[in-house]
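Troubleshooting log. The previous structure file for this entry was overwritten by mistake, so regenerating from the original sequence record. Sequence copied from the archived sheet and checked twice against the printout by T.R.
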Amino acid sequence: MRIGCLLPPDSFVWTKRGLLRVREIRGEDHVLGLDTRSNPCWMDIPHDCKQIDEGTILRILTDVNEFCVQESSRIATLDGLRSAADIRPNDHIDIFNRADGFRMVYESLLHRSPETIVFDGRREISLDPSIAYVLGTQILAKRYEYKVVMNIGNQEHWTELAAIFDSALRKAHMYGNVLYTHMAGPRVVIDSVRFAQFVDQIFSDDMLPQEIRTSSLDILVEFYRGIMDSFLRSAEAGLAKLRVRDTMHELRRFILFLGKMFQLVPFAIRHGSVTSRDSSTRLRETTLYFRVSDLSRLNLRNINLTYSTLPRLPELKKHYARARIIRKFRKREIHLLQCSSIHAAPIVDLVSVYPKRES
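Regenerated output below.
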């Protein structure tokens, strides 16, 4: 008889090593959770997290986040513990919103050493905040064989952005030039075949590389800033929006998960669809809306952060989010996250998932 939580392999958890997917957790890792008194704690994980079965996964989209769990998982809600299979639209899910818990993560990751990435099979490149920022800007960008491009949305800061791109090129010890161009709109360009190959290699296997997620906190934060700086767009009434295709739900969960460290909660999440380029199909798309006043906590460089007159989010919404859309996926991998105690709950995709005894 084992104690643990049945989870999909790509759910996110905070550990002392950084932000990991469930499938990446190893024995002797420590996962952020809640103890018997609902206080944040580091939970001991006795064994590697491995696949034990296939089953039905639920992806639940709420007012402020999105999470993936196995259908029998026990989830904390406003009405107590509920099986994920029993959650219905408009049920209120308990969302992790503890400053003391995020402080534990901050202190654990603050002094971690930067990870290194082996490029071209032989060369080690140590991650640096400027490299991490540039990588964040490229996560959804068009790939080129000989250059790395970022569109400029706020021309007041183009020199600062160019300096970051130049620093990334130098820290990677690669030849090339950084250019500012107005062709097809204002852009900062790293004109370097080797750096473009480096970017392509990093994202060839993983859109969210583990080396970034387990580096020091400043590298993880700069990667996040690069994503937000590159893909946020101004919207109506003091809002900024970020559109993500439904097939990239892992990226969306990463954005919402890490944003909580900055108390960044979406003002609204809207679900729709767009026509594919060949007009043959309709593709699901989710748009995240943020108050520009809240985005000021990120010190973004590429979007005009004017003061927002929109009302602040109600405090209740920061702690409990209404389930909006529930989607089922059958015959998916199920991993067992073993726990030392049945009374402590790991925080998975920002929700408390309570362990059970599994045969």
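The radius of gyration is 21 Å. Archived copy saved in two places this time.
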